[in-house]
Amino acid sequence: MKKNDSFQKLLLVISVLVFAIPVSLFSQTAERVIPANAISMVNPLKDSMQLLPEAKTIYKTSCRPCHGENGKGDGPSAYTLETNPADHSSGKVQNKTDGELFWLITNGHTQTPMVSFKRNITVRERWELILYIRSLAKKSEIK
C-alpha cells in the first residue's frame, strides 16, 4: 500500500508541474492592458525646470542602466536583454499619456524586461520621471 501512496503523490506532483508551469509562463508573457482610468491620469506636477535635476538623478539610478543617458534604449545593460529597452525620446513613448507612462513605471511591462518600480520609486518621483522623460524628446529635437 505504501508503494501506491508514493505513486499517487508522485502523480500529483507531476500533474501540478505539467499544468502550473505553462500557466505561469503564459501569465508572464501576456500583454499588459493599461486600464482606462490609468490612461486618463494627469501628472499633478507642473512641467518645471526646477524639478528636472532631481528627476534626472532618479533617472540615472533607475532608468539609465537600460534606457541610456539620453533615453535612447542604449544603456550598458541594454545589450544583455533579449528585448530592446524603449527609446524614451521616440514618438512611440512620447505619444503615450502621462497616465500610461505612470502605469508602466509603476507596474512594469510583461512583454519586455521593464520591471515594476512601485516599491523602489515614490509616487511623486514617478511623476517627476515622466517630466524628465518628456524633456528627452525636447533634447532630441534640438540635436
Q: How much is the radius of gyration in Å?
A: 21 Å
User: What class, by secondary structure content?
Assistant: mainly alpha
CATH topology of the largest domain: Cytochrome Bc1 Complex, Chain D, domain 2
What is the H level of CATH, i.e. the homologous superfamily of the largest domain? Cytochrome c-like domain
Please, how many helices? 7
Which band does the percent of strand residues land in? Answer: under 5%
CATH class of the largest domain: Mainly Alpha
Q: List the secondary-structure elements in sequence, H or E.
A: HHHHHHH
Distance between the termini: 78 Å
Second rung of CATH, namely the architecture of the largest domain: Orthogonal Bundle
Query: For the residues shown, what is the average pLDDT?
Result: 83
How many strands, what sense, and barrel or not for the largest sheet? none
Helix share bin? 55-70%
Note poorly predicted spans: 16-29
| Number of DSSP-assigned strands | 0
Global morphology? elongated
What is the number of independent domains?
2
